[in-house]
Design brief:
five-stranded mixed β-sheet, elongated, single chain, four-stranded antiparallel β-sheet
Length: 380
């Protein structure tokens, strides 16, 4: 099973909790994870409506303790309850982001907002909820961050908050419709840690959905975070295969021909060496395309090669479900294509053109940049 998060209204810890419960994760799963802390924190789920849409609102009820915790103290607290690795990673990301914003060492960061008990409950509950689902991949749409200002422990902060921008660096984000903070640092850290791929709704057979309500009910957007669950699909489509045999074209022309075909919309184009009658060496030019692109591609073949005719046939084309994410190598963004078979990742490849561009800009060997990009791809 895979999941997709629709974050056009942003993301926060309580919205993620609500989406999980609304999608069928038992509230007891989240409560059991939080109860490990032994700090008297409670979770309550209630029906809610946002812009007329039914959703679930999960509220965290925590006693006032007035504690401002450092990352080292939060880490020790998580260690005492044997919290799963993603929970540690979420807070570590938060600590690094806050350290960068305030220009202090990581272990000296004080979690005024995110170190509060409700944030601890958010992180433990969300991590436990997704572990319960056992997803093979979690996709996420571009994230709405909001605009305007908000108030932090040190005073007014611009929105998007600096920590949020740091946490979601390299990820697809935008301001969104609402003039307030749509994505919190806790929500951003959870997304940065748990999401495996970024983009639109992937090919899937939907089995259930959940909607987690935010605290406001604004006019600009339905303030819900949607979690869509389902089984990934292989994509089967009809395609057209154009072919011709050519034995009298200067071989230096072929790279240009292939480039022209791909630029004109071919799904793929390639050459196969063959031996024709009377022992003449030649090439078969093959062009795979959608039916609608065939007239344009026929014209390219006739214009750029010496052939006098083409043969065509329809073929079934099976493609794996695929998504695109990004990694950062020394400040350069490199796209990574991910292919899934029945929900299992079978291939992840950095985009070669991005690798070459980064290598050129950095003055490094392309093979080194490729190796670093591969090492940064999130393992499954």
């Amino acid at each position: 099973m895979i999941g997709w998060l629709d974050t056009q209204a942003g993301a926060s810890g309580d919205m993620l909790l609500g989406a999980l419960v609304d999608a069928g994760v038992p509230l007891t799963v989240l409560r059991d994870a939080v109860d490990q802390l032994g700090l008297g924190i409670g979770l309550a789920a209630t029906p809610a409506s946002r812009a007329g849409l039914g959703a679930t609102k999960v509220d965290v009820h925590a006693p006032e303790d007035g504690t401002s915790r450092t990352w080292a103290e939060v880490r020790r607290l998580l260690d005492t309850v044997d919290a799963p690795a993603p929970a540690h990673e979420v807070f570590h990301r938060l600590a690094e982001a806050e350290a960068g914003v305030h220009r202090v060492p990581v272990d000296e960061v004080h979690f005024h907002e995110v170190g509060a008990l409700d944030a601890l409950a958010d992180v433990l509950g969300v991590v436990a909820g997704f572990a319960h689902l056992g997803l093979s991949a979690l996709h996420c749409s571009p994230v709405a961050l909001g605009s305007g200002t908000t108030r932090g422990a040190h005073g007014p902060l611009p929105v998007p908050a600096p920590a949020v921008l740091s946490l979601l660096a390299g990820k697809p984000v935008y301001a969104g419709a609402s003039p307030y903070e749509s994505t919190t640092p806790t929500g951003a850290a959870l997304l940065a840690t748990l999401v495996t791929d970024w983009g639109g709704l992937p090919p899937m057979s939907v089995t259930r959905t959940g909607m987690g309500a935010g605290g406001r009910d604004p006019q600009e957007v339905a303030n819900v975070l949607r979690l869509v669950l389902g089984e990934p699909l292989q994509d089967k489509r009809s395609a057209l295969l154009l072919e011709t045999n050519v034995d009298d074209l200067d071989p230096r022309v072929w790279p240009h021909v292939l480039a022209q075909l791909l630029d004109a919309g071919a799904s793929d184009a390639w050459l196969t060496p063959i031996l024709m009658k009377k022992g003449r060496p030649a090439h078969t030019l093959s062009v795979l395309c959608e039916q609608a692109r065939a007239p344009v591609l026929r014209a390219v073949v006739f214009r750029e090669t010496s052939t006098l005719g083409l043969r065509e046939c329809s073929v079934d084309r099976h493609t794996l479900a695929r998504t695109e994410s990004t990694v950062e190598v020394a400040g350069h963004t490199i796209r990574v294509k991910t292919a899934l078979l029945d929900g299992v990742v079978v291939n992840r490849n950095p985009e070669w053109e991005d690798v070459l561009a980064a290598a050129t800009a950095l003055g490094r060997p392309a093979r080194d940049v490729l190796a670093e990009a591969v090492s940064l791809v999130r393992p499954q």
